[in-house]
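Issue: copy button drops trailing tokens. Both records pasted manually instead:
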Amino acid sequence: MIQYRKILELHDEGISLRGIASSTGNSRQKVTEAIQLAEKKGIVCPLDEEMTDLWIEDFLFPEKSLEASGRQIMDFEYLHKELAKPNVTLSLLHYEYEAKSRADKKIPYSYRSFLRHYSRYAEKYKATLRIRRKPGEIMEVDWAGSTAFIIDRDTGEKIKAYIFVATLPCSQISYAEATLSMDLQSWITVHNNAYEYFGGVTQIVVPDNLKASVTKHTFTELILNPTYREMADYYNTIVMPARVRTPKDKASVEGSVGVISTWIIAALRNLHCFNIDELNEEVLRKLNEFNQRPFTRKKGSRFSAFEEEEKFALSPLPASPYKMSEWKSAKVRPDYHISTESMFYSVPYEYISKQVEIRLSDNLVEIYFNHMRIASHKRLYGRFGQLSTVRDHMPDNHKLFVDQTPEAAIEWAEEIGSSTLVVIRYILDTYKTEKQALQSIFSLKKSERSYTKYEIERACKMVIFITKRPSIKSIQTTLKNNKKNDAEQELKRNTESNKNNYGFTRGAAYYGGKTHDE
């Protein structure tokens, strides 16, 4: 048996390769190989008592124990790395191993033996076992059953604080945070903070069936809370709630909740904190101690297992954390506005009486119909009853009314003609108030529904020819009279035209024929 332990200890003392080879009776090549493999696999001095020469040989050369069987040797390092990749399973790797064995004309291990040998290797030498959980695949989340508390400085009253726990099953690392509520706002906030603590995002998040995460969950239907679903989309992860009354679906977090209740909540039972930030500082301190506690049956800790074997598999975080939005529903009012939080926002008038969904964020209000966005507004704050109205959402007749400004009135008059412009300028200059002038002009503008631009311009021209103080009423009267006169003249012309077209028929006597009297 090669003296692996002595080789590593002499190397740690700075003895040359030649000196080590001479002292142990091994070749320099063998000494070099043992030292290099030990450095690669993380064996460092001082060595534990259990690290005998046999243990070290088994660790450095696990394939040697398999060579005696005459079967195809398994590359455990390769298997462990491949199992970290998405969708790669031991059954696939065993299939590839069998194909390689046939190509090498060697006997492969059965799937059960293959599985047993890998499990033994991973449990002994690796921080994580990848048969059940892949790195970076799942984050399980829940509220702890036990609560902490903070103290009100004024009354001395103890106020409950709820502990959120998130666990990555592969490395068993956990995150914990105290909140004063278990509402949706707190639920989203602690998820953001958990992702930041882990430095990445898992492929799947497994919550319980809380109202903050699930609206409806039956055997045939799953409806997520809209805000929670939006958060998952933002982080490009998938929400897969645990089945109702099935704690095994998130066994890792269930176990972590119990341990954290002991190592964090119970450990802080005699500590008095006066606000939630103070409490969370203590929770974070205890959490880091918990994650860095050494495993009892293998080397390393939850934190080292995460850093070495899981962190690489997490998806990168977005540039900024998810900003929570709230979803509500409302019916579009007859004035084509929806009401939310005592503010009013317009939608296209075609959606009057329709039921729509409203997404509220800090700065934006978005309105959806059948999952299609139909309007968006800057969110209003301050006094109740404010309106945000988009002109394009109005019917045409409402647009006319809203567009009433002196500039718009003059622009309209210029399109009609010079006489109309004189009338409009006179009204704007002589009326006591601008609002009164604009109302009068608006009534004239409505005349376009019944009269042409030519008729309006002609009426204005006739009125200012008669008087230097034109009024809207006189123009409207002139329009009516002109319309009536034009109709009478048209009828007269048609009548005269018909008379001119009549002919005279000569009787039979004119042509020398007999009349009836004869």
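Record 2 (pasted manually too):
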Amino acid sequence: MQVRAPGYDHFTTDVLIIGAGAAGLRAAIELSRGGVDTLVVGKSRHGDAHTIWAAGGVNASLGTRDPEDSPDIHAADTIGEGHYVTDPQAVAKLAYEAPERIRELQDWGCRFSLTEDGEIDQRYFGAQSFRRTCFAGDRTGEAMLSTLVEKAKDISVPYRENVYITKLLTASPDSGGHVNGAAGYDLKTGRRLLFSARAVVIAAGGLTSLYERSSSRRNENNGDAMALAYDAGAALRDMEFVQFHPTGMVQPEEMAGMLVTEAVRGEGGRLYNAEGERFMEHYSPDHMELDARDVVARANYREIQAGRGVEGDAVLLDISHRDADYIKERLPKMYEQFSSLGVDITREPMKVSPTAHYAMGGIKVDFDTMQSTVRGLYTIGEATAGVHGANRLGGNSLAETVVFGKVLGEYLTGNLDSLPRSNPDEAEVARHFADLDALGASKGEHDPNELVSELRRLVWDHAGIVRTEKGLDEGLRKLAGLKEKADSLDVVGGSGDLEQALNLRSMLTASEAILRGARLREESRGAHHREDFELEDPDWQKTILCAPGVEGMQLWNEPIGEIPQKIQKALDEDYSLDYHHLE
């Protein structure tokens, strides 16, 4: 329901979903099918979410190519490559439910690539024991999202575009202190927006736009999902674990960091340095280019740092030994992407370099309910933490969206009556909109765009692929200086400047959580690599959490749950990818 109040528009719904990618839409579909009044809001037009950039595939142990695969082995691969700091129950749920979710998408019209027998085809992805990555050429995320968008439209799921959520609202402590709405504004008109809801779901992605080079679009994945939850009092988990994809584009400058999908290596792509050496033979002779992303990314990084990179601080990724028609069929997006730059990947290699790609860290949730540590606030998708541990298995992110979107939708459909109905406090709403007005009219000393660029360089330099105590301490010192500058912003024009100022605030919170978590974890584990603590330490097989405290950001540890017996058995049996099937 919408009411036009003085100064803002007020919407009332049972469940507000912030974020319209695959996770948010899958949850909305489940809720709407259960008769729950649901509203999805997104920053972009309907169907234009970061999901479309997940190109290579989605994991499910269908056994199409390798019948010996199973959910237990999928879970074992996930826990092993997560370096034993995943939430084992969450991993089990992901692995056991993914096959049904993929078949459901196919039933809804998702055009997965098929075998000659008409089964969903599966390819290799890095660090997987068997071929379990389902795909739609190299446009898998796009195919999945378009399917979910059409399904949502078919059942009339309400959706509002161009919405920037700026604050989660909570009921007064004497009413339970639960999250009961959100405030924001329309990015096109500037009109203030208020949403009342019995439950709020964050499905707004990750944080890799904090880095100078990332596979995200610049206006997405800037940590606002985590910052919204943190500001509402929710705990964050494992923020130090950020995955760097081994292969991002380096040229032209406006495309630097754009993903070159893992499907290129899954189809047999090879990495070479400037000397023509296939260098993964030194770093991972058994798994070569299909070792875990953290291993391959560090190998690329070290080759470049050692001066064996090609022009543009890059290495070469070559798929040209494959048949040209095969490449065009299996990798159509990559073929077109490089052809537009005058590079024919059927004949010549691609220049690539590591790029910030995915946040394993995020908001802490209970994976049975998807509720955060604050009542009434739920989270799904990349904004959550716990499924991927210290290093995400490629193909698991898309699986996570539909598996846990369904889990959340089912839970809230059956348990919504346990959440009270209440409107956000009018005084709190008035104060927040007044603060927004003041920020939009501020004429301070510092351009928010320049501070965002400075912050991205800081995070890349001090919390990047390789970290040290000295570098992290220096990063925290510089961050404190940026925070001071952010208190005096020059926001002089339209909603675009206000948007960047708000992005900066979120990015500062998320960056601090990454730097502090990385400083505390004195070991190397998965994507978190400390040059001053190069070994994995059994005493650090635990998770790091942070939340707002009286004296600022507070950090603490919690133990990891017990691995289910069937999955432990699969771990003990030590399945491993036979890379040489590709030779």
